[in-house]
Design brief:
Helix 5 packs across helix 14 and helix 7 packs across helix 9. This protein has helices spanning 2-12, 29-40, 46-50, 54-62, 65-85, 104-113, 123-133, 143-150, 154-167, 173-178, 184-192, 197-206, 218-240, 254-268. Helix content is 61%, strand content 0%. The chain has two domains: 1-43, no CATH class; 51-268, no CATH class. It has 270 residues and is mainly alpha-helical.
Length: 270
């Protein structure tokens, strides 16, 4: 039962007695299990099944020099984002809801705020990326181990970004240059400002099966993703503070991420 609870809660958002599923709806363990078997496991995306071998994925996509160099380039900004979005509502002494680790709700809120959710990354895919990126623990019994098992450390968060970059539809460098854009963010912003239909069509046409070769080296895809995240935050900050100047692509501070988060809370109501 303990294993079932750990699987159901992060993967589907469904919990048994005393909890609630997505949207706050309370469900029984039987209903949660039925949903897992008839909906989630049946409809698991093929790319997710392919990446269940976590060690192989980490060896091929995470533990390589160019990926490490990309993360070092963006490290200060990524740490700021992680700290702010991991703040949550963790109560003092409540280690299962730590305000220093990122839970699945905080992860999905971040993806929503930086506008990474679309047809290629839906809530289910976002949650599966979260689940696959968690490091395992030797002994699950201590509360601290349970907390680490159900939440992302900063290192887990970086792995989640690598996984995200392999499945999130983003333009290649060639597409960006061919369209006369300075960056992937400008490429996508232009399509979104036209009403969103052009962007939605781009996503649908660009989605690939899990076993298709990566369109670019993994470090370039990761660089594109990180750049998109930072540019989205910068764009919102500059739009909010029109009378102030800010150097584009400069490092983002905790204060700036917190301001961006506050703006998104006003927009989305949470």
């Amino acid at each position: 039962m303990a294993v079932m609870r750990r699987v159901l809660t992060p993967a589907t958002g469904a919990v048994g007695k005393g909890g609630g599923g997505e949207g706050g709806a309370e469900v029984s363990v039987a209903e949660a299990l039925r949903g897992l078997l008839l909906e989630d496991l049946v409809n698991v995306p093929s790319w997710c099944r392919a990446q269940m071998n976590m060690r192989r994925f980490r060896d091929e996509c995470c533990y390589i020099q160019d990926v490490d160099a990309t993360f070092r380039e963006w490290e200060s900004s990524l740490r700021a984002i992680y700290r702010v979005y991991s703040g949550g509502d963790g109560a003092i002494g409540d280690e299962m809801h730590s305000n220093k680790l990122m839970d699945v709700a905080e992860w999905r809120t971040l993806l929503r705020d930086v506008q990474l959710m679309d047809e290629s990354i839906r809530p289910k895919e976002a949650t599966l990326i979260f689940v696959l990126s968690r490091m395992r623990v030797v002994d699950e019994r201590p509360v601290t181990s349970k907390a680490r098992l159900c939440q992302l450390t900063f290192e887990d968060f970086l792995e989640a970004l690598v996984r995200m970059s392999t499945v999130k539809v983003l333009p290649t460098q060639e597409q960006v240059f061919d369209n006369g854009c300075d960056s992937a963010f400008d490429f996508i912003l232009g399509m979104r400002e036209g009403g969103g239909e052009e962007y939605a069509a781009f996503v649908r046409l660009s989605m690939q099966p899990w076993n298709a070769p990566l369109r670019e080296p993994i470090y370039q895809m990761l660089e594109c993703l990180c750049s998109m995240i930072m540019s989205t935050i910068e764009h919102e900050l500059m739009r909010e503070r029109q009378n102030e100047t800010r150097k584009s692509n400069s490092r983002i501070s905790d204060k700036e991420v917190a301001l961006f988060r506050k703006q998104c809370q006003k927009r989305y109501g949470s």
